[in-house]
Amino acid sequence: MKTTTLMFALFALHTAACADKSQPTAGAHAPSPVERGKLLAETSGCHDCHTPLAMGPNGPAPDMTRALSGHPAALAMPPAPELPPGPWLVTVGATNTAWSGPWGVSFTSNLTPDPETGLGTWKQQQFIDTIRNGRHLGVGRPLLPPMPAAGIAKMSDDDLSALFAYLQSVPAIKNKVPAPIPPKAGPVASK
């Protein structure tokens, strides 16, 4: 009988330790939209591309003084290297904010609330439409790689609203990101 009681107690402790902690329990603090948005930004990899990398003592690391500000405006990129036909498809700048491939060259956007160079004048619905439609401001040019818009589009409206609330709460950083560069025209096929 003591073994059964001990086994039940261990099972209960294990179950409690492994329980899903993402949802608040009764009486627990429910995260604010900004707190929820911060968690979503951190777990969805927003900083991976929108926060420039800088060389640190242990190699490249996110430069949090420029958090979510996109490709540094002061970093003029040379033409992307030409890749021969084959299995290599993409090149990436050292800051992890400039990407080239068959779509041309894309620069990660400034997601801070700067009104001139970031999302400062955006409305929540424009942000949701951008993600849902995969187009800038919901109707403009397509979002380009490496933006994982198709995956993020699966978030609920509440989650996208929380993500937007978080992005509006971070320090505004003035940083005008270059416009994408379209792919070079290939050789024209003759008949």
Distinctive features:
191 residues; disordered N terminus; 3-stranded antiparallel beta sheet; alpha+beta; two-stranded antiparallel sheet
Please tell me about this protein's structure.
There is one protein chain. By secondary structure, this protein is α+β, with helices and mostly antiparallel strands. It has a domain at 31-75 and 89-169. 31% of the residues lie in helices and 9% in strands. Strands 3-4-5 form a 3-stranded antiparallel beta sheet, with no helix packed on it. The longest helix is centred in the N-terminal third of the chain and has 17 residues, at 2-18.
> Portion of residues in helices?
25-40%
Summing up helix and strand content along with how strands pair, one would put the structural category as: alpha+beta
Radius of gyration: 22 Å
Mean pLDDT: 85
Strand content: 5-15%
Uncertain stretches of 5 or more adjacent residues: 1-22
What is the terminal separation in angstroms?
A: 87 Å
Order of helices and strands: HHHEEEEEHHH
Count of DSSP helices?
6
What is this entry, summarized?
The chain has six helices and five strands. With 191 residues, it is an alpha+beta fold.
Helices and strands, with pairings:
Layout: H1 2-18, H2 33-43, H3 46-50, E1 53-56, E2 59-62, E3 91-92, E4 98-101, E5 104-107, H4 124-133, H5 149-152, H6 157-169
Antiparallel strand pairs: 1-2, 3-4, 4-5
